[in-house]
């Protein structure tokens, strides 16, 4: 006799502009969930799978400019590989997946930032992810000036700004507005949080939303 089917895992994404603390808060949530006995897969975009990591290097490390449509296609290709080789198999196995950036970053960066038509973004999204959509999205909101300052400090004196960190302030202001609009349009999926707040306080807010959404109580996790 076969065993009971494995319950599908939950898919949580973190979004926001440069320096907003997505990686830190994703790690803290994974630690809290592990404390509650939940197996998590922590991943990122672009990247997360071998093929997608190769595209990440092309997109973020190479200085060759791309037409906005070509850039959008590259992100979609990386995402399709990531979804098919890592995200969907992990969810099917009952793992929770926490991803640093996903579809909303394309809507914000390529849609609002690069002004690629929303209809094109929607078509690419459908092709890349199918029905694999986040159960919960945490959007960390931050003034772009502060975010870029944080990103500079994180890189250090020898680090070069990537393709997006080096963009104009106006570009990053469009991205912030886009993320805020996404949060307002989809309140059932998205939680908008002030990223200037204390890291522990932000982590607590995220844990509370996860508890409300999924009926579990994340552990306290490690200290930020």
Please summarize what this structure is:
It is built from 8 helices and 5 strands. The protein is α/β, with parallel strands linked by helices and 224 residues long.
Secondary structure blueprint with pairings:
Blueprint: E1 11-16, H1 22-35, E2 40-44, H2 50-61, H3 68-92, E3 96-100, H4 103-113, H5 118-129, E4 136-141, H6 144-155, H7 169-185, E5 190-194, H8 199-214
Parallel strand pairs: 1-3, 1-4, 2-3, 4-5
Helix pairs in contact: 1-8, 2-3, 3-5, 4-7
How many runs of DSSP E, i.e. beta strands?
5
Report the helical percentage.
Answer: 40-55%
Task: Give the helix/strand class.
Answer: alpha/beta
Distance between the termini: 46 Å
Shape estimate: globular
Chain-averaged pLDDT: 92
Strand order of the largest sheet: 2-3-1-4-5
State the helix count.
8
Record keyword descriptors for this entry.
single chain, 224 residues, alpha/beta, 5-stranded parallel beta sheet, 8 helices, globular
Any overview of this molecule?
There is one protein chain. With 224 residues, the chain is α/β, with parallel strands linked by helices. The protein has eight helices and five strands; from the N terminus they run βαβααβααβααβα. The protein has a five-stranded parallel beta sheet with strand order 2-3-1-4-5, sandwiched between helices. Helix 1 packs across helix 8, helix 2 packs antiparallel against helix 3 and helix 4 crosses helix 7. It starts with 10 loop residues before the first strand and ends in a 10-residue tail after the last helix.
């Amino acid at each position: 006799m076969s065993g009971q089917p494995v319950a599908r895992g939950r898919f949580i994404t973190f979004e926001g502009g440069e320096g907003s603390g997505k990686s830190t808060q994703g790690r803290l949530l994974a630690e809290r969930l592990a404390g509650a006995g939940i197996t998590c897969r922590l991943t990122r975009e672009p990247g997360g799978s071998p093929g997608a990591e190769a595209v990440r290097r092309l997109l973020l490390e190479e200085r060759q400019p791309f037409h906005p449509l070509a850039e959008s296609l590259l992100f979609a290709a990386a995402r399709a590989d990531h979804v098919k080789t890592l995200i969907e198999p992990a969810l099917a196995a009952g793992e929770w997946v926490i991803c640093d950036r996903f579809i909303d970053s394309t809507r914000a960066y390529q849609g609002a930032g690069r002004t690629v038509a929303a209809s094109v973004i929607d078509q690419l999204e459908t092709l890349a992810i199918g029905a694999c959509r986040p159960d919960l999205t945490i959007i960390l909101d931050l003034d772009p000036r502060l975010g870029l300052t944080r990103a500079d400090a994180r890189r250090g004196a020898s680090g070069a700004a990537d393709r997006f960190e080096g963009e104009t302030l106006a570009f990053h202001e469009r991205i912030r507005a886009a993320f805020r609009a996404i949060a307002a349009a989809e309140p059932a999926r998205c939680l908008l949080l002030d990223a200037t707040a204390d890291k522990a306080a932000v982590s607590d807010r995220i844990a509370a939303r996860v508890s409300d959404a999924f009926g579990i109580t994340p552990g306290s996790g490690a200290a930020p």
